[in-house]
Amino acid sequence: MSDNPPKLLLNDPDVRRWHDNMRRSSAITCSVRLRRLNLFCSRIGVTPHELVGIGRDDPMKVENILLDHVSWMEEKKYAPGYIAGVIGAVKSWLEYNHIEIRRKIKIANSDVPVSIQDEKVPDKEQLKKMLDAADPRCRVIISMMAFAGVRPQVMGLADKSDGLVLSDLPDLVLDGGDTRFEKTPAMWWCGRS
Fold first, then answer.
1. Strands 178-181 and 172-175
2. I need a labelling partner for 157 at 20 to 30 A (CA). Which of 16, 25, 52, 138 fits?
3. What CA–CA distance (Å, rounded) separates 71 from 83?
4. How far, in Å, CA of 23 to CA of 31, rounded?
5. Which of 32, 3, 158 is nearest to 93 (CA)?
6. Contact between residue 179 and residue 172 where contact means Cβ atoms under 8 Å apart
7. SS3 of residue 193 by DSSP
8. Is the peptide bond before 185 cis (omega within 30 degrees of 0)?
9. Is 159 a residue whose pLDDT tops 70?
C-alpha cells in the first residue's frame, strides 16, 4: 500500500465513488482527503477496504486504531489541525461505507489556530534565490505576489479553470520585446464576461 500514490486508489470503484461524491462540493477537499486516507492506510499497513472490513467486524477496533493514530501523531508533534484533517478524512471514508464512529475522538489543542508567528516575509536575497530558481511562469507568479500583493487564488484556481490573464491588465503594453505599463500604479481588471 505504501508504494501506491493516492491516485491509484481511484482504480478502486468504491474509493472513486467516494472521491467523486466529495468532488461535487469541493475539488480541493476531495483531493486532500484522498491523500490523507492514503497516508493513514499506508502508515497502519491496510488498504481502505481492509479498514472498512475491520470497522464492520469490530467497530471498537477501528476506533482504537484511530485513537492510537492520534496519539502517535501528537507524539510526533503534528499540528492539531492536520491531525483533525487526517481523522476527518478517515471518518469520511468509514461513514461513506456505513461505519459509524461512536466515540468522540479528541485532539489536544484542536481549537487553537495554527501559529504563523515564526513565518516571515522573504528578504531581498531570499526572493532573488526564489526568482533565480523559478521557471518563467513561476517568476511571474512570484513577482505578482511579492511586488503587487496579488493573492494566490487570483493567480489561478486549484482546478485551473480560471486565473489572471494578460487582458486583466489594461495598462500593460506589449510592444515587441518591450513590456511596460502605460500608467503606474497599474490598473487591473477581473471583470471578464
1. antiparallel
2. 16
3. 10
4. 8
5. 32
6. yes
7. coil
8. yes
9. no
Cα–Cα distance, 185 to 193 (Å, whole number): 24
Residue 15's Cβ-count burial label (10 Å; 0-12, 13-18, 19+) is buried
- The residue assigned the cell 470497522 is 55
Containing H/E element for 69? Answer: helix 59-75
Whether residue 83 has pLDDT greater than 60 = yes
C-alpha cell at 99: 461505519
Binning pLDDT at 50, 70 and 90, where does residue 191 land? low
SS3 string, 127-187, reads HHHHHHHCCHHHHHHHHHHHHHCCCHHHHCCCCCCCCCCHHHCCCEEEECCEEEECCCCCC
Residue count of the chain: 193
Nearest to 22 by CA among 31, 35, 10: 31
DSSP letters for 79-130: -HHHHHHHHHHHHHHHHHTT----S----TTTTSPPP-TT-----HHHHHHH
